[in-house]
Amino acid sequence: MEVIAIQKSVLDGMKMELKALLELTENATRKYVPIFNKEKWLDNQEVCLMMGITKRTLQTYKDKGLLPYSKLNRKNYYKLSDVQALLGVGQPYNIKYNGFTDE
């Protein structure tokens, strides 16, 4: 085991910097907490598994405005209630007026 000795003032400075970094991180994420606490959010993979569709089909749903989404750090998230609503009306690819066919 290696032991490293540092001055107390240096250790205190490191502690203060870590506290400041933690505070910055908490402040940056605080605005997103209410969004995620109110409703369950799903990522691409979870939506595809839940709906039984491919990622390409999911992209088509997004492009056509059938499934709203939010982007956070270059990743898409979908409200569970929106996915359930889309499932409730039936799989969109079975509906001719959406431009999808089941062929």
UniProtKB/TrEMBL annotation:
This protein's record includes keyword Cell cycle: no
InterPro entries documented for this protein: DNA-bd_dom_put_sf, HTH_17
Record's keyword terms, sorted: DNA-binding
Keyword Signal: no
Molecular-function GO terms, alphabetical: DNA binding
Stretches assigned to the Helix-turn-helix domain: 41-87
Database matches in SUPFAM superfamilies: Putative DNA-binding domain (SSF46955)
Protein's recorded name: DNA-binding protein
Native organism: Pedobacter chinensis
